């Protein structure tokens, strides 16, 4: 905040607002720093002065793996708006993303699949219904030998858990459910999958029976009913590619950055972040400290 205070002191616009602060109902000064009031649920945020600091903020919350991971305009805007203010922020974010080469090279337009969807009724609470899927094989194989991603999403909160794996076997799916899902977040009520052999095997059915989970198959409703996790997979592909090295052999190393940014970005359906719905609190990003 000391650096921001010094930069604000050199900004003519901020200087004028501070000088007439009594007539500026949308602003206030705290510890020598000018803040902008925002409508609830957003909190007051510091006014960012003109200069390089604005470009730095755009890069941090869009380009970096830990804070942005090359997500789109709406999610990037929400992240920055929750933390900062300057008058041309929306236009600056749009221009920055439009000129982002990794985004241009790796973002693909999703096309709606044909057919009328028959989605299952929405769950009554978080962790009541999860959707699980394997994604792959991914080329090239990573340096660690991983070829697939197993993904699981909570249908209500949209919270996603992912892991890079070597194969798409039933044993791999069972280990993922036990070690990465149940032992960290608890046992869900129902899990929705397709009818692939890795999900219909005896070992998988035995696990569901032992832990008391109802196993639903997407084909009972419609082949595309499991579309929520498939939409995440489509989003994930472009973001991973934007962060990878030139040979794309480190895709499994950037996977968790993409997953984290998905979970900490506003979702169009819920108007909240999956992280906040899942944990009941707002996330603190690495650069926020």
Q: Numbering strands along the chain, what is their spatial order in the largest sheet?
A: 6-5-4-7-8
Integer average pLDDT: 90
The figure for the number of domains is 2
CATH superfamily of the largest domain: Ribonuclease H-like superfamily/Ribonuclease H
Helix content: 40-55%
Order of helices and strands: HHEEEHHHHEEEHEHHEHHH
- Based on the structure given, which CATH architecture of the largest domain is correct? 2-Layer Sandwich
- Rounded to an integer in angstroms, the radius of gyration calculated over CA atoms is 22 Å
Which structural category do the helix and sheet elements fall into?
alpha/beta
Shape: elongated
In whole angstroms, how far apart are the ends? 11 Å
Give the number of helices: 12
Strand runs, count: 8
Low-confidence stretches: 113-117
- Largest sheet composition: 5 strands, mixed
The percentage of residues in β strands lies in 5-15%
The name CATH uses for the topology of the largest domain is Nucleotidyltransferase, domain 5
CATH class of the largest domain: Alpha Beta
Q: What would your notes on this structure say?
A:
This protein is elongated. It is built from 12 helices and 8 strands. It has helices at 2-9, 12-19, 52-62, 73-81, 89-98, 101-106, 170-185, 197-200, 202-211, 227-243, 251-263, 274-279, and strands spanning 27-30, 33-36, 45-46, 129-135, 148-154, 160-165, 190-193, 214-217. It has 2 domains: 2-106, Endonuclease III, domain 1; 129-279, Ribonuclease H-like superfamily/Ribonuclease H (Nucleotidyltransferase, domain 5, 2-Layer Sandwich), CATH 3.30.420. The N and C termini lie close together (11 Å). Strand 1 and strand 2 form a beta hairpin. With 289 residues, the protein is α/β, with parallel strands linked by helices. Mean pLDDT is 90; it is low at 113-117.
